[in-house]
Each structure stands twice: as structure tokens, then as C-alpha cells.
TrEMBL record:
InterPro entries: Quino_amine_DH_bsu (IPR011044), WD40/YVTN_repeat-like_dom_sf (IPR015943), WD40_repeat_dom_sf (IPR036322), WD40_rpt (IPR001680). This is Uncharacterized protein. The keyword Repeat applies. PROSITE patterns: WD_REPEATS_2. Pfam families: WD40 (PF00400). WD repeats lie at residues 23-67, 71-103. Keywords: Repeat, WD repeat.
Length: 662
């Protein structure tokens, strides 16, 4: 969980978010949510997570009521049901293969857990038939498919085993067909790579009706919804659209609900105070390849397929559970960052979307382009997201330039590149250099975004650029063990370096940087076992191996006469660039994600969770700790002493206190 922000924000450009509340109670991702209706008319909200616990919340006051502790391993599912004493109960299922019952008001367990005899419980569902309550759980084994276990929640006796264990089952629901209680689930066939909708008689366990094929054999979610004609239908999430299906005929009913990208992760149904049916869909990062471009909540009229409203969540992580509280006033989402976020529809639906530029979310890596007499520009990276029809798997990233003072978008470099960095030559002229995987180098005017020079190299497969500060040389590295150096002034290839470690031949470099020393600029190459320094003036090569045998990582940052290099223990080692001696070792329990040097000589580091530490490089002592309240990927010290932050959802510039070391 990120630290709270205690530094003044000078400018920022982040994903837009409608006003909301954030309930933070888990150390891992939130896996499921349930609403509990108390006999008093009040409601509680229950969240469960990968940290093995459940948390009962008072959603109105935003406070924790109780904690459910007892599972061994992640808790995957939760639902509420009526208790025999007319109170409320909560049932959870987890990776320990048990079903556990709880009093939500106290957090105390109710009776002994049900040991299902399976390795894992992935979903739970409660429903009432007449005066009797039933409970169904999706259970599975590591070496087989899933099964549905129907249980009497009063006696804890198993009533029925449903399904043959040949499919991965998910999004369990119950509906009534011709007077019978029918269980329905999405069924993924591992061998055939297909997805279908399957239905079983809840009383006998027998299959009813034919399986319904899912278009494109891909579905993210499914729920049971009432139909205008009576009976129940199914709302199925298919990438960028939601369709309604008649479970008896398998026909698609009406038109689809279309989304702006194929990142729809959750859906739920509720009735407004007026009794009108409403459908809620959630856009969040479903794919492991790219982030959602428009993370948001959308409100629909399922009868007319009209979009009634939409608001941004500002959260790039996956959110695959959604519930509606009260009389349809509040929506709650389960987030993978360990939080539950709540929005009031009346407050959120009027929030602007998607933002004034459409490039919000462009963040780390980042670089600074200096400009005379001004704050300069920030160069940020935009990861192309899942817009239907776009070539999502094409190589390269997009890069944006922002005015660091006003946070206004200057523009986007045309095309996609393996890398883009800021560079200032000996005359003080600033430019942006880009590298393509075919080896093409291009220099760009950062204000007009027009090319000012191009160079053809033979460094194909290189993914990173490191230009010499105030010089004309540039180092290229990436796939393979070589680091190539080119002179942009002459267009000539200058040198090639590869690791000569006989114990670790052909290792790719971890990182490359230029450091300014009294002898002039030197190229630093970090391999996992050692540092290599090259002096272009003399051609000399020197090396440094950590005395403690530390494995060096991808953090490599030049300071005034020294180099900061990260290791695999997420420490930062400061090495004198002249004498190759260790000056200090910086560490913190959370691990250091990035490092920078301020103009006054202080070293600043960050943690992923948003901790900002200031250090004295001479002694290695920590001078101060701050927080920025967001996940941080990169930091960059600016010439005026402020700090640019590359965030998971954009960027910001914060002002640091003026405290000198020593």
C-alpha cells in the first residue's frame, strides 16, 4: 500500500479519477466482495483477499467492523446468507479447500469449517428456494478440472456434486427454468481451448439443456439478469462488448453493450430506486500485455442498450469484482492493490472523461529536456493500450512531451520506438534522441517534434540509448552482450564492448551510463558481477567487483564523480568513479526502486510504494523520509532541485525541502 503524500505537488498529469473513498485493509489483492443485509436494515460490505483474511466494513462510515481470520492461504470467494436465527452469516472459501462460516458483526467463526475434500474453493454462491437456503461452491484439484459442490448451510451436509471435473468453471449463478433451480457457469475446456455456458439441475446434478457456445471462445465474466419478458437471462462479457443470452435457446437478445476497448473485467446488475433495471460494467487492466486506456465504470439501461453514464476510476490495476450498495446509490470495486474503492453514482457520473488530452497515464520511464530560462519539458512513455483494431503486439512504445511548468501536452513523437531519451550537446542545444530496433537513430526538436538528424547504424536489436552529457557520443545496448558506441558528429562507429568475464561469458549488460569525472566523461557498463569503466580519451578500461559478491542490477545512475548502482537485494551502492572504491551502501526494508542526485549533492531514492528518502552520499546516512501517495516507477532530479516522479498512472513534480547534507 502506498505512503501518504506529504510533499507539495508543483505540477502533475495523471489518469483522471472521479471522487471516491478508498478502504485499505489487505496486504494483497482483493479477490471478492459481498454485501450483507442486516435485520436492522443496515448494510455491511465484506472483502476477502490473497493475504488470507476477510474484512467487514461499514461502508457508510468507511471503518473496519471485524476481521475474518482462519483460512490457510488466499481467500478467493465470499457471499452472504441468512442465518437460522434470522441474523446474517458470511461464508468464505479459499486455497485451503475449506468453507468457513462467520458472524459478520463480530468476525467470530460460526461452527466448524466444511472440509470439501478438494484442494481449493474458487467461488461460493447462496440462494433461497422457498424457505430453504442453499450453498454452492466451485471446488477443484490441482491436477483436474472443477466441480460444483452443493451444501446445506444449516447442517453442513453435502447435497449434490455437480459437473464432471473436465472444465475450469467460473462465474457461478442460479436461475429458475420451468420451475427447476438450475446452476449455470462458464466452462473452459483446457484441451480444446473453448469456452461454453453449461447448466445443471441444482437438485439432481444432471446436465440440463445443451451447452451454449461462447463467441470467440473467450469470456471475462457472466451474471444472471432478469429479462423484460419474464424469467432470467445471462449477461456475458466478451472483450469489448457485453451480450445478453437466453439460457434456454442460446440466442443473443438485442444488441451488444459496446465498450471503448477490450478490457471489460466485471459486470453486475441492480435495480434503481425507481425499480428500473441497471447494468454496471467495469473497464480495467485485464491483459498482461498492456494497461487499460480508459479505466472506468459504465452504467447501462439493459433494455435499450443505452449508456446512462460513465466515470473514470483512475486505477490501472485489475478490478474484477463489483457490487452495488444501498438503493443503487454506491458502487464498490475490488482492486488488486489491496483496496476497495467506493463511488456514489450521483457524484461520479458528472466527472469529465477521459481527460483533456487523451494521453493521461503516460508516465515512467521519464526524462527531462532542459530549456533556457524555463522549467523545461518532461519526456514520458505511453504504453499503447487495447483499442480494438490496433496492432497491439507491434514493437516499440509511444513517447509524449509535456511542459514541466504547466503540465500541458506539447505533443507525441510520431511513431513507436525502442527507446527515447533527452540529450544536450556541447553547445547546450537540447534534443530528443530515439532508437528503433532496426538500428535507426533520430534526433528531434522537442518543441516542434520534427526530426533534425538521422543516423543509420548496424546495431539492430538494441533497445536502449545512453548519450554522453554535453558530448556527441551515444551508447546503444540491449539484446546480446555488446555495447556499441557511436559518434553522432561524425556518424562513425567508435567502439564495441562485451563482457570478458571468463566465468560468465556472453552476459548481457544490466545497465549503461556516462559519468563525469576529473579526467572527463567515462562510460560505465554494469554486468551482474562487476562494473566496467571506459575512458574515451585514453582508451583505458577499469573494473570494480563488489567485495561482498553482490549481484548488480539494472539501476545505474551517475553522480558527481561517483556511480550509484543497484544490486539484486534492491540496495544502492555508491562507487567512486576515480578510485573505484565503495563510498556508501543505501538500503531500506522495502527495497529501493530508483535513485537520483539533486543539484545540491544529496541522493534521493524511492520505493515502489511511494517512499522518498534523502541521503548524504558521503556517510550513507538517511536525512529524511517522505511519501508521495502513489506507486512510483522512476524518479528524476530536475535542475531547480525539484523531483519528477514517473508513476504507474502518469507523472508529477514535487518540491523537496531544502536541507543540505551534513
Amino acid at each position: 500500500m502506498s505512503m501518504q503524500c506529504d510533499l507539495p505537488v508543483r505540477s502533475a498529469r495523471r489518469l483522471s479519477s472521479a471522487p471516491h473513498r478508498r478502504l485499505a485493509g489487505h496486504d494483497g489483492g482483493v479477490t471478492d466482495l459481498a454485501v450483507v443485509d442486516l435485520p436492522t436494515g443496515e448494510q455491511l460490505l465484506v472483502s476477502v483477499g490473497t493475504d488470507g483474511s476477510g474484512v467487514v466494513w461499514d461502508p457508510e462510515r468507511g471503518r473496519e467492523v471485524a476481521r475474518l481470520v482462519g483460512h490457510h492461504g488466499a481467500v478467493n470467494a465470499v457471499c452472504s446468507l441468512a442465518a437460522p436465527d434470522r441474523g446474517a452469516r458470511v461464508v468464505t472459501g479459499g486455497d485451503d479447500g475449506t468453507l468457513r462460516f462467520w458472524d459478520p458483526c463480530t468476525g467470530e467463526p460460526c461452527g466448524d469449517p466444511i472440509r470439501t475434500g478438494f484442494d481449493v474453493v474458487t467461488e461460493v454462491l447462496a440462494w433461497r428456494c422457498g424457505t430453504r437456503e442453499f450453498l454452492a461452491a466451485v471446488v477443484g484439484r490441482d491436477d483436474a478440472g472443477d466441480t460444483i459442490l452443493v451444501v446445506d448451510p444449516v447442517s453442513s451436509e453435502p447435497l449434490q456434486v455437480v459437473g464432471e471435473g473436465n472444465h475450469e468453471l467460473s462465474h457461478l449463478g442460479v436461475l429458475t427454468i420451468e420451475g427447476r433451480q438450475v446452476l449455470v457457469a462458464l466452462a473452459a475446456d483446457r484441451e480444446r481451448g473453448s469456452v461454453s455456458i453449461r447448466l445443471w439441475d441444482a437438485g439432481t446434478g444432471e446436465t440440463v439443456l445443451e451447452p451454449i457456445a461462447v463467441p470467440d471462445d473467450d469470456a471475462e465474466a457472466m451474471i444472471v439478469v432478469p429479462l423484460e419478458s419474464g424469467g432470467s437471462g445471462l449477461a456475458v462479457v466478451l472483450d469489448e462488448r457485453v451480450i445478453r443470452v437466453d439460457p434456454v435457446t442460446g440466442d443473443v437478445l438485442g444488441g451488444p453493450l459496446l465498450h471503448p476497448e477490450n478490457q471489460t473485467s466485471a459486470v453486475t446488475f441492480f435495480r434503481a430506486v425507481s425499480g428500473e433495471p441497471r447494468l454496471v460494467t467495469v473497464l480495467s487492466t485485464v491483459s498482461e500485455l498492456w494497461d487499460a486506456r480508459f479505466p472506468s465504470v459504465m452504467l447501462w439501461d439493459p433494455r435499450s442498450q443505452d449508456l446512462l453514464g460513465r466515470f473514470p476510476t483512475g486505477h490501472l490495476g485489475r478490478m474484477d469484482r463489483v457490487v452495488v450498495l444501498g438503493d443503487g446509490e454506491t458502487v464498490a470495486l475490488a482492486c488488486r492493490d489491496g483496496s476497495v474503492r467506493l463511488w456514489r453514482f450521483d457524484e461520479a457520473l458528472g466527472h469529465p472523461m477521459p481527460g483533456p488530452t487523451g494521453r493521461e497515464g503516460s508516465g515512467a520511464p521519464l526524462d527531462h529536456v532542459p530549456e533556457p530560462g524555463g522549467a523545461g519539458l518532461l519526456l514520458t512513455t505511453y504504453h499503447p493500450a487495447g483499442v480494438t483494431g490496433e496492432d497491439l503486439l507491434s514493437s516499440g512504445l509511444e513517447y509524449d512531451l509535456w511542459d514541466a511548468a504547466t503540465a500541458e501536452l506539447i505533443g507525441t513523437l510520431p511513431g513507436r520506438f525502442a527507446d527515447a531519451v533527452a540529450h544536450q550537446d556541447a553547445s547546450g542545444r537540447a534534443a530528443v534522441l530515439t532508437l528503433q530496433e532496426d538500428g535507426a537513430l533520430t534526433s528531434w526538436d522537442p518543441r516542434t517534434l520534427t526530426p533534425t538528424g538521422t543516423w543509420a547504424t548496424n546495431t539492430k536489436g538494441r533497445w536502449f540509448l545512453r548519450p554522453e552529457p554535453g558530448g556527441s557520443r551515444v551508447a546503444c545496448f540491449g539484446a546480446g552482450p555488446e555495447v556499441d558506441v557511436w559518434d553522432l558528429a561524425s556518424g562513425e562507429h567508435v567502439a564495441t564492448f562485451r563482457d570478458d568475464d571468463v566465468d560468465h561469458p556472453c552476459l548481457e549488460p544490466e545497465a549503461v551510463a556516462w559519468v563525469l569525472t576529473p579526467q572527463g566523461p567515462q562510460l560505465v557498463i554494469a554486468h551482474v558481477t562487476h562494473l566496467t569503466l571506459w575512458d574515451p580519451a585514453s582508451g583505458d578500461l577499469r573494473s570494480h567487483r563488489p567485495e561482498d559478491g553482490a549481484a548488480l542490477g539494472r539501476q545505474l545512475h551517475p553522480g558527481p564523480g561517483w556511480v550509484a548502482v543497484g544490486d539484486h537485494e534492491q540496495r544502492i551502492i555508491l562507487v567512486d568513479a576515480t578510485f573505484m572504491e565503495v563510498l556508501a551502501v543505501l538500503s531500506c526494508p522495502e527495497g529501493i526502486a530508483d535513485v537520483a542526485t539533486l543539484p545540491d549533492g544529496r541522493v534521493v531514492t524511492c520505493t515502489v510504494a511511494g517512499g522518498i528518502d534523502l541521503w548524504d552520499p558521503r556517510s550513507g546516512s538517511r536525512l529524511a523520509r517522505h511519501g508521495v501517495g502513489a506507486e512510483v516507477r522512476r524518479i528524476l532530479a530536475l535542475p531547480d532541485g525539484s523531483l519528477a516522479l514517473g508513476l504507474v498512472d502518469g507523472w508529477s513534480i514535487v518540491t523537496l525541502p531544502a536541507t543540505n547534507p551534513g
